[in-house]
Design a protein that fits this description.
- By secondary structure, the protein is mainly beta.
- The protein has helices at 2-17, 19-22, 28-38, 364-372, and strands at residues 88-89, 97-103, 114-116, 119-123, 128-133, 138-144, 157-162, 165-170, 174-179, 184-190, 200-202, 205-209, 214-219, 225-230, 243-247, 250-254, 259-264, 270-275, 294-296, 299-303, 308-312, 318-322, 333-335, 338-342, 347-352, 358-363, 381-387, 390-395, 399-403, 409-414, 424-426, 429-433, 438-442.
- Helix content is 9%, strand content 39%.
- It is globular and about 60 Å long.
- Strand 28 and strand 29 form a beta hairpin.
- It starts with a helix and ends with a strand.
- It has one domain (50-442): Methylamine Dehydrogenase, Chain H (7 Propeller), CATH 2.130.10.
- The longest helix is centred in the N-terminal third of the chain and has 16 residues, at 2-17.
- It contains four helices and 33 strands.
Length: 443
């Protein structure tokens, strides 16, 4: 009899393990099989690295204060604007491939592009500035500043555009400006040490930093140094790049040491200073690693290795900190006094910045698995955008997940072409460069 029960249990276990093949459950063959194929590119979860953050469901009666989405026509900064904070953009949501260009470069393209006056501005690893006209459907300018002796060196270009003029810094220590409509270099300077941050413009000044954690103010008309502000220098380097954000007349600067500075742009005087890296042991594992600084109203948000800090941007006072770090490759967004972000452990999290309360926190891998009714796997997230008061998360394998503002999945679908660069939202359209180095516009 005991042998009979053992045999029966064995059969039941085997039946359960082959559910995906037998089609015994309702609609299983048509739905589950299709959805498993849809997410075949996802990696299996490493059980040793599962998130220890807890799920926090949204309260039933909680309501977000929503405002109409805005239409956008330019993308002059790699992080969209001076504050690094994306808006709530209008988007048509039909995902049709409206436009596709020819290949614009044979080389590896950098992740960020710009958009001004119906021109897309891209850069590649050879140092090419590529200007593509949407109206003319062609490259109108392809300029390379570098001489033959730099040919084999991979170029890392930092760019910003204003009134047809692109300002460029690089990992070779060059800073130069280029008018893409006249196809002319306006000025160029060599400063020896590699530049290592995004660029910002304030009135007649270009603001940037180098890899030694020096903050510079340059004259944007000549490239001459106006002010140099040295900060802590580290001999050991990691992958984190210095980051700049502006709000009105203040520049906020986080360096590789984890020090956050607020500088008055008119006087270039220090307003306040805060160190977010509590370790005094300077080795590769303790160097600061965070995400872009974003600013909205009086709130400044920055993530350190283990925590997310909400700071009063005028005084430097730590308002509170959350015990989670942000995904360093995905920029958070502040919308109507709420922070929306993906944490380092892949939780979609919303925080009320007025009181510091977490409104909800959902494990994205679990959320996807529940929606698709498949076994939980590990997704690779690329970007977070807010469109039409909804949260769009783009995956590295070119799927998009659209969430309602309350964290509930509305739909999951595949983009018609494989996305490579960080997307821009222009005139209700999604613009990016695909993995074949072709510009795609979805409308």
């Amino acid at each position: 009899m005991k042998l009979f029960y053992i045999l029966l249990i064995s059969i039941l276990i085997q039946s359960c393990s082959f559910d995906n093949k037998t089609g015994i459950w309702k609609n299983e063959n048509t739905i589950t099989k299709k959805k498993n194929k849809t997410f075949k590119d996802f990696k299996s979860i490493n059980l040793l690295n599962q998130s220890s953050e807890e799920t926090i469901p949204i309260e039933k009666n909680y309501k977000f204060q929503l405002r109409p989405a805005s239409n956008n026509f330019n993308w002059n900064d790699i992080y969209y604007d001076q504050s690094n904070n994306l808006k709530n953009f209008k988007y048509d949501e039909n995902y049709e491939l409206f436009f596709k260009s020819k290949k614009i470069s044979r080389n590896e393209l950098n992740n960020f592009t710009l958009f001004e006056d119906n021109h897309i501005i891209a850069t590649d690893s050879k140092g090419n500035l590529i200007i593509f006209s949407i109206n003319e459907d062609k490259i109108i300018s392809k300029y390379n500043f570098y001489k033959k002796k730099y040919k084999k060196i991979k170029k890392e270009l930092n760019i910003i555009v204003e009134n047809n003029i692109i300002y460029i810094s690089d990992n070779l220590g060059y800073l130069y400006s280029y008018n893409y409509k006249t196809n002319k270099i306006l000025w160029a300077k060599k400063y020896e040490v590699a530049f290592s941050s995004n660029l910002k413009i304030f009135k007649n000044k270009i603001i940037t930093t180098n890899q030694n954690n020096y903050l510079f103010y340059f004259d944007k008309y000549s490239g001459e140094i106006l002010t140099t502000i040295p900060t802590e220098e580290t001999l050991i380097k990691n992958n984190f790049k210095n980051n700049l954000s502006l709000n009105e007349n203040l520049t906020f600067f986080i360096n590789t040491f984890g020090s956050l500075y607020a500088i008055n742009n008119d006087t270039t005087n220090l307003v306040w200073f805060l160190n977010l890296n509590k370790s005094i042991d300077i080795n590769p594992s303790n160097l600061f690693n965070g995400n872009q600084i974003i600013v909205d109203k009086n709130n400044l948000v920055i993530s350190s290795n283990q925590n997310t800090h909400i700071i009063n941007q005028k005084t430097g006072q730590m308002l509170y900190k959350k015990n989670f770090a942000l995904n360093s490759s995905i920029r958070p967004i502040i919308l109507n006094d709420h922070l929306f972000t993906i944490t380092k452990k892949n939780f979609l999290t919303a925080v009320n910045l007025k009181n510091g309360k977490t409104i909800y926190s959902y494990n994205l891998n679990s959320r996807i698995a529940e929606y698709l009714k498949i076994k939980k796997r590990d997704a690779d997230f690329k970007d977070l955008i807010i469109l039409n008061n909804k949260i769009m998360i783009i995956l590295q394998n070119s799927f998009v997940i659209l969430f309602k503002i309350n964290g509930e999945i509305e739909y999951i679908r595949k983009l018609p072409t494989n996305i490579k660069t960080s997307p821009m939202i222009i005139d209700k359209s999604l613009i990016f460069i695909d993995k074949k180095n072709k510009i795609s516009i979805l409308n």
